[in-house]
Design a protein that fits this description.
three-stranded mixed sheet; about 290 residues; single chain; 9 strands
Length: about 290
Amino acid sequence: MTDKLTVSVLGTGIMGAAMARNLARAGHTVRAWNRSADKAQPLAADGVEIADSPAAAVRGADVVLTMLYDGPAALDVMRQAVEGLRPGIAWVQSTTAGVEGIADLAAFARERRLVFFDAPVLGTRQPAEAGQLLVLAAGPVDGRDAVTPVFDAVGARTVWTGEDGAEGSATRLKLVANSWVLAVTNAAGEALALAKALGVDPQGFFDAIDGGPLDMGYLRAKSGLVLNGQLSPAQFAVSTAAKDARLIVEAGERGGVRLDVAAASAERFERAAAQGHGDEDMAAAYYASFDENA
């Protein structure tokens, strides 16, 4: 197969739009669709063809890439795309769908005879726009040549976790990684909230841990978004973080483990969203520490 592909991108939110742009910049023919058409339209300036339906977007494509809100959304859109799908097409499923969700999507792929790749990514807006995502992928070895150019366009590195996407090994690893990311994000917000409550200058906290094992670039980056009022545009939105936290809790329950921190994270993100911060960066969970917006 030629390295230049026709790729259909279904879902052009923060991540999907960046991935579509990078695919076009790599020389691939890209057709994109989004439920809210206004979010897809700016991609036309980058050479991306905007389709008016999922079926139109996938017709004649070599690879379909889905980057939607959750598993049910991805399944619904792929069902809408059925008329344009052909047997043997590669489906790169990058939505964070959860363990149960990925099983439903893999079942659909079997029914339609699609070559299924479980391929969530690690990274937020900035690495997505730079084509520096970490791709976690599982899928058949003999089909990887078809999707490697896609992964190379959107990511800096691909980690293969298995040969059967239906087993969800990539999704499972993504949930483990996200459990850490969401916990650290909320811990940073609570530290800032406590500093405010106690009258402590946050810079004093940063100075105290500077250069030591407790220091962390991610802590400083997320804290900076809060302290400098830079929560929009979101790197990773509060509402999406809440959804992922719930998927993590559900995955733990399926495995017989109790994830108290993940459950608390979900509650904090949901509370921040209810306060009006749903579309802001997930660092805005900071505001969940207060009854009123601080």
